[in-house]
Amino acid sequence: MKILVTGGAGFIGSAVIRHIIRNTTDEVINLDKLTYAGNLETLAEVSDSERYCFERVDICDRAEVDRVIEQHNPDSVLHLAAESHVDRSIDGPAAFIETNIVGTYTLLEAARQYWQTLSATRSEKFRFHHISTDEVFGDLPHPDEVLSPSASESGDKLSLFTEKTAYAPSSPYSASKASSDHLVRAWKRTYGLPTLVTNCSNNYGPYHFPEKLIPLMILNALDGKPLPVYGKGDQIRDWLYVEDHARALYKVVTEGVPGETYNIGGRNERRNIEVVETICDILQELRPSDKPYRDLITFVQDRPGHDRRYAIDASKIQRELGWSPQETFETGIRKTIEWYLNNLDWCQRVQNGSYQRERLGMRS
Ligand SMILES: NC(=O)c1ccc[n+]([C@@H]2O[C@H](COP(=O)([O-])OP(=O)(O)OC[C@H]3O[C@@H](n4cnc5c(N)ncnc54)[C@H](O)[C@@H]3O)[C@@H](O)[C@H]2O)c1
Fold first, then answer.
1. Which end of the chain is less enclosed by CB atoms within 10 A, N or C?
2. Is the CB of 65 under 6 A from ligand 1?
């Protein structure tokens, strides 16, 4: 199988490509614009493979997308290219509208035109898999509220996001992802394009861009800089190790039922403050510091519109496709910290680029 992966130079896209080249005989075409978040060093281990090639293309450029599709004749598309950072979407939403909505529309139209020209056998097997986030669902009741007397009277409980949860995005990022999910479903319903959508919780692991929460905290701690935590740090996220996500995406694109949505998550709900404290404690063990890393934690003004809690019910993908995560949060976070300690030179190179040192804040 030949798979066109968009956004393959990013954090999750590169993990997917490494997974495919390592574990299958499939070919991969990586289509990526290489924004500040794209980094080809993440693909060093596969770049010499005859089954891998790279095309520097913007998904909003229809002529170039058509050229790549025509030249490589893919059997499926895994669409990950996106602007992905919530804080950036608050400061400058335009790029999110352009890439996440217009870009997805452009890719859908190019894929539809191509799919219509395929033979019956190939068109039946063709898949357009759109990778999305649990942030499209908005936020869930938080235990601090649910356990309060007024909440028990109103019947609030600790629910999870399922595939049927209504969309209620809070940030420009999540609203742009919600829009793109709707477009993808409409292209299935209206034109019959065999689409799949997955909505995943927060990922973490190697090659995560250092503006995001976990790498930012690791690197700041090692530099003796403050560890900025939004609000009281009580926001809850459901963390999934990136390689578990990559395995899930390959399962869905190869075995998923067209038109279906699958939620992906690790049932690893943690308060942001717990995540930061865990990082400090593991660092204290691996790189002991005279001044405990926990002393660097500082609370900063909360992000506007900050969702309180996300948590995914991943029982459908477990039941129907037999996927389940291999890493617990404890094993995954330790591996991640060890990876950063062994790859500080990568972090430095990425940070020397467009990393905005002056911006402090909790990143999700
Ligand atoms: N990171 C998470 O925790 C998470 C969780 C759930 C879903 N997702 C989704 O997974 C996908 C990948 O996320 P990520 O964290 O790897 O993002 P990322 O920001 O690390 O990577 C995005 C990649 O897309 C490329 N790109 C951006 N605009 C482009 C354009 N116009 N044309 C072509 N390429 C472009 C970038 O160069 C980069 O390589 C996104 O769609 C995101 O919404 C992410």
1. N
2. no
- Spans of all domains in the chain: 2-204+240-267+311-326
Instruction: Calculate how far, in angstroms, residue 82's C-alpha sits from the geometric centre of ligand 1.
Output: 4
Q: What is the mean pLDDT of the chain?
A: 94
| Distance, CA of 31 to CA of 57 (rounded, Å) | 6
Contact present, 111 and 193 (Cβ < 8 Å)? yes
Annotate 128-167 with b (16+ C-beta within 10 A) or e (fewer).
bbbbbbbbbbbbbbbbeebeeeebeeeebeeebbebebee
With a cut of 70, say whether residue 251 has pLDDT above it: yes
Any ligand 1 atom below 6 A from CB of 265: no
Residue reference for tokens 């976070």? 333
The dihedral region occupied by 205, where left means phi > 0, alpha psi between -120 and 50, and beta the remainder, is: left
What is the Cα–Cα distance from 281 to 292, expressed in whole angstroms?
9
Q: How far apart are CA 37 and CA 171, in angstroms?
A: 19
Band (pLDDT 50/70/90 cuts) for residue 361 is: very low
Of 205, 179, 172, 196, the residue nearest 84 (C-alpha): 172
Span 2-204+240-267+311-326 CATH architecture: 3-Layer(aba) Sandwich (3.40)
Output the residue whose Cα is nearest ligand 1's atom 26: 81
| 202-204 and 236-241 beta bridge pairing | parallel
Q: Please, is 120 exposed, middle or buried when counting C-beta atoms within 10 Å of its C-beta (0-12, 13-18, 19+)?
A: exposed
Maximum Cα–Cα distance across the chain: 67
How far from 199 is each of 137, 209, 264, 272, 322, CA to CA, in Å? 9, 20, 6, 21, 17
With bands split at pLDDT 50, 70 and 90, how would you rate the model's confidence at 287?
Answer: very high
Torsion sign across C-alpha atoms 84, 261, 110, 21: positive
